[in-house]
Amino acid sequence: MKRGVKNQIVKLLKERPGWHPTARIIYEHLKGKMPGLAFSSVYRALLALSSEKKIRGFTLDSEDEKRYEIYTKSHPHFKCTECGRVYDIDIDINLAFKELVEVHTGHIVKDVHITYFGICNECLRKKVKKIVKDNDV
Ligand SMILES: [Zn+2]
Ligand SMILES: [Zn+2]
Q1: What angle do CA 44, 50, 53 make, to 5 degrees?
Q2: CATH T-level fold of 1-72
Q3: pLDDT tens-digit series, residues 52-94
Q4: In the chain, where are the structural domains located?
């Protein structure tokens, strides 16, 4: 049963690259396919998969629930404060920070997580459209 849950989670995340669901959302998706599935099984499977580095779990901010994704390489995220969507930032800037911190402190950085907050390009486009419409430009 547990193996089944793990496989289903990996399959679900693989089908949707760039998706960052919470444990609750993953559970909602699998519930229909796996009758009798308990939330605790999903939660335990997520913890196991994260420690096996098959998926990545991260928190965006203190108010946000933990999210999971299939992209396990360390990468920054962008969270839109308007629509709440979370985007992957596929630019290799983590490494520069990592080396800087290591050189300055002598610590070894094993993981870095950066989240940028702002307005996503889609919300920005909608805002501009609205301004244009409201002002009848
Ligand atoms: Zn947005
Ligand atoms: Zn991501």
Answers
A1: 145
A2: Arc Repressor Mutant, subunit A (1.10.10)
A3: 999 999 988 777 789 999 998 888 899 999 999 999 998 877 6
A4: 1-72, 73-137
Q: Look at the domain 73-137 and name its fold.
A: Dna Ligase; domain 1 (3.30.1490)
> Which of 44, 35, 36 shows the shortest CA–CA distance to 9?
44
Residues with CB under 5 A from ligand 1 (ion): 80, 82-83, 120, 123
CB 111 within 8 A of CB 74: yes
Q: Encoding tokens for residue 2?
A: 């547990």
C-beta of residue 58 within 8 angstroms of C-beta of residue 104: no
- The dihedral built from the CA positions of residue 59, 63, 65 and 67, taken in this order, carries a sign that is negative
- Asked whether the CA dihedral 126, 131, 135, 137 is positive or negative, the reply is negative
Ligand with smallest separation from the Cα of 125? 1
* Nearest bound ligand to the CA of residue 76: 2
| Distance of CA 34 from the midpoint of ligand 1 (Å) | 33
In angstroms, rounded to a whole number, what is the distance separating the alpha carbons of residues 27 and 9? Answer: 9
Share of the chain above pLDDT 90, in %: 64
